[in-house]
Amino acid sequence: MNTHRTRPENQQDPIKLKNLVREAEERLLNMESSRELQPLIERLHQLQASIDHNYNLDSLLLFVNHELAEYVRLPIAVKERVVIDQSFATRDLIRAMHLSAAYYLLVLSKQQARLIEAFNNEVVQEFEGDFPIENTQFFVTNKEEISDPRRHTNMLAEFFNRIDKVVNKSIKDHPLPVLLCTEEEHYHLYKRVADKKELLLEPFLSGNRVEEPAHAIVAAAWPIMEAWKKAQILQRKQELQQAIGAQKVLTDVSEIYQAIKNGQVQSLFVEEGLIQPAVIEQEQVVFVSDQKLSQKEVIDDIYDELMEECMRFGGEVVLLPDGELSQFGGCAA
Asked: Which of 95, 105, 184, 239 has the highest CB neighbour count under 10 A?
């Protein structure tokens, strides 16, 4: 369900959640006996009561089964719905993941280096211990060398190389893309001496910001990361177009279903808003109307099911804006 971040709008959220919980309860009781479902319904009500709506973001997802009862707040709008199925509907989690970015910011100057972990426009942590790294030895003091620009560059390259080794040690257990925040000449020099160039992003945040607070640096970096994420999605779309040209694309939902089960799908492309109830009959996907959602054998959303299975078999799910896959009915693999 969609929620609100601030008052007084968020005072509507508990009422909306109550109505959706009631809808879920009614659908459950239409499918099974109340005795079997009472523990599940009680877990749902307990989870509902535990939510403090003062901390809401843009949407709220509840996941409940006999072993688990959890909720997730997301910074994106969602289509409001109740899903009752054998597996959780994770489309919105995947979409939030596609639109979000976890990354490191290496804030660099010729005197100092700081390392910040960020998620979107929020600071996760600033590394301490090995950071900040101060340049206490890699600078020219010899009078004869002060006028030699190559000597200055070599000394700075050595300082950056030492920084790079500490960065790689610090992030080896949790590798993420690294966005450099530095002046342009330093960006190119650092990239030249870096051991793991594949982790360094092409864009960089320009300027000397080593004295700025972490939250200000991350706020300035987020538009760059947001554009980078969108470029990644565009690149995947171009890869799909190439596969279409090579006639290596499946578009029939039943064929996609079979290929996923056989572990033959590397990438599944689905439009963000595509939702379709279905049943599986003799290994074929058969679409049904929303009026049959209360029937036990009906899968609330076959595309959620395909995404879950694709990821379970090691494949990747790529969500595209609505209309991008209209020639294929909204789904391709």
From this structure: 105
- Convert the pLDDT of each residue in 30-84 to its tens digit: 876 667 788 899 999 999 999 999 999 889 999 999 899 999 998 888 889 998 8
What's the pLDDT tens digit per position in 235-261?
888 888 888 888 889 999 999 999 999
Specify whether 298 is located in the same domain as 209: no
Give yes or no: residues 173 and 273 share one domain: no
Task: Give the whole-angstrom CA distance, residue 63 versus residue 90.
Answer: 10
Is 243 part of any domain? no
**End-of-domain residue from the set 82, 114, 144:** 82
pLDDT digits (tens, 9 = 90+) for 104-125: 999 999 999 999 999 889 898 9
Does 96 reside within a domain?
A: no
- Specify if 320 maps to a domain: yes
CATH number reported for the structural domain that contains residue 316 in this entry? 3.30.1330.30
* Spatial CA neighbour of 126 closest among 209, 47, 247: 209
Decide if 270 contacts 331 (C-beta within 8 A): yes
In a domain, 184, yes or no: yes
Domain boundaries, position 142: 102-228
> Peptide bond before 132: cis, by omega within 30 degrees of 0?
yes
Count the domains in the chain: 3
